[in-house]
């Protein structure tokens, strides 16, 4: 409604509504007047007709005029459509009435004129309400008035007739209004199309701006009609085309334009930035047809491109270099490998910017080390990438060490930190003199120009990139330096990132290797082999361990710290150390994982406290811990969020035992860890692994387990062959997650390697057990170790009898490790029902006892205490060497050294 067309429409609509409303009121008033006049005429006519009807006088003068007149009165009232026909005498008494109830009543009203013989019509309020009444006298034969006939019509009836006409009047008015509004809308729509919806102010401003823009714009504007005549030309068009003052409305052929330009302007062909010559100017001409959106014709714009044409080549070259820099940002630095990044730099510049590119880097950069030396002291570079040259090129090949000469462009560029441009190698005296033979071969290979740019990042020099152009390409110019510097800057940042990654990766790998087991410990219970495959993402937190325990038992550990990098490797080292420490205390499987869960929770709490704003790195870790006892073949195993093991039985079948799995480490919230116990047949292979072996984004867990089952199924193989078969089944040699694999084949101690005795709680029982022990050692051929063994066993049994509780049992084990020059190990175990652990101490001079454990610790390789559900076990290990045990004399001297002769 702000547009001109909308305002005109509102004005037309208001005028039409006013006219229709006025006409409607006039019609209603006129209809009311017509109906009232009709009522007067009708009542007068009916009254005259009834008063002058034959027999009316006789009826009035009859003995009973009411009986005679009443039927005629009722019939006449109905036929005439009036409210009543009344006949009354001169005395005002009603003789006949359309309403029989009114007969005999005196009529009150202005009837004096009718009684005097003069008809009249009047409006008054009677018994029927406000009415129009006409009264006519009834004359006798002698002309005297004998009665009066009155005919009333109520105003209500008259108004009802008017109301019946109102719908017709209103309908007509509405129809007229709709037609008028529709016509106004059509007029407004056409006007809106003609004015494009603009308001009066906008139209005025538009025409003002039209004139201002048309004459002030720096582009020429022409409007040409469909007949080829020039309809409009602005000032710039007149200047560019040198048009005469009366050019408008003249035909284009009469304006003296260039033939090609005149042909384009007169045709119906559109054009975009087509260049035409006009006098000494080059004009870019664009033409658009005005049809079908306007009258036939065209609008033409003219731009003077004489000066822009000179700059177009430079702009195109600049745009190409910007695109090259954009592509370089996408293509350089796609990997964190220094050599590959150098190759990407060389490849992205050929052939867009140079015919050949060489990249030379410092050896420390390639190794990921810092380059702390001064640029002037750099004397050697390693050729790291070459691109754009054939196999017979004269330049140094990749991986060759290049010794720099002080005056050489590469040395100058690195020492001064600026690009060095050699536009023509054939006339460069320094370059030819320093590399006479190489310069000659380079020129023979048609290489004519070079641009050397140092690679710098964070103030450190990484190397140089050399751009070469051959014969047939333009030589390098000063305009090329900025592009080469920008390209080198981006590449140097990527090379430096790759160098830093190489350094950090090497540090992380070194840390991880230092934390993982370097060699498996010697033990006789299991034959073990392992594999560790790092992930593609770098150093991870997977680890494994084989930990010998007391009583020939062996602990197998496999764990996984979530994530990669130094934090994961360091956390792995902490957990591995904690497992070793807990295992050295001979903790049960469930207790060890419980303590490890508490440790991880404590590490998380420390990380959160130390992290910025309380947001530290939360450790996610899983662990599986198993203890195998070769004396019974029992395997106690527990898992904290870790996938269960695989068991390959001696017949080659594979089973995945269903084990209870506790929450991952750090999430147990103090809940107890569930343990499973298995009896493993001798010769079975126990396979422990991390989730990277069976889980991958490209396959689900079931598919990974099926692949592992297939790799393990088969005839009996050594653990080493089993590891090789499993690793061959992995789809990729660079998995997404670390893989730790541990395969252990079980062994059992035979009955001839174990001796057991029940011992009553009586000091006298020590001697028989000592004797039985000596007898068993003799059976084993170990008489040389008998004296030391009897001493250790006697002290352990005596300690149990004196301080322990029943039942007391003694077990003697002999192991024969394979691949060792030793004769084996003797293990002494004394179990009792007490949970009190003995404590080693040095006895005082005045003490009569307290030296038993000291002797055990002196002659045993290791000793300790292991708690069981029924009490504890004190154990000691004695290594069997071929050079026998100490002599009895030496043992006696050792015992005597425990007392002070002076004190005695």
Task: List the keywords.
904 residues; alpha+beta; six-stranded antiparallel β-sheet; six-stranded mixed β-sheet; 40% helix; disordered C terminus
Layout of secondary structure:
Blueprint: H1 4-51, H2 56-61, H3 65-80, E1 86-88, E2 94-97, H4 112-115, E3 120-126, E4 129-139, E5 145-154, H5 155-195, H6 200-216, E6 220-225, E7 230-233, H7 235-241, H8 259-266, E8 271-278, E9 281-289, E10 297-304, H9 308-331, H10 338-348, E11 356-361, H11 363-366, E12 380-387, E13 401-403, H12 409-416, E14 420-422, H13 429-434, H14 436-444, E15 447-457, E16 460-470, H15 479-515, E17 526-533, E18 540-548, E19 554-564, H16 566-584, H17 589-610, E20 621-629, E21 634-640, E22 646-648, E23 654-655, E24 661-662, E25 676-679, E26 685-689, H18 701-712, H19 719-728, E27 739-746, E28 754-759, H20 766-780, H21 786-803, E29 808-815, E30 824-832, H22 852-859, E31 862-868, E32 871-880, H23 888-896
Notes on the protein architecture:
Pfam families: GAF_2, HATPase_c_2, sCache_3_2, SpoIIE. It is a multi-pass membrane protein. Its EC number is 3.1.3.16. The chain crosses the membrane at residues 166-187. The protein has 904 residues and is an alpha+beta fold. It is built from 23 helices and 32 strands.
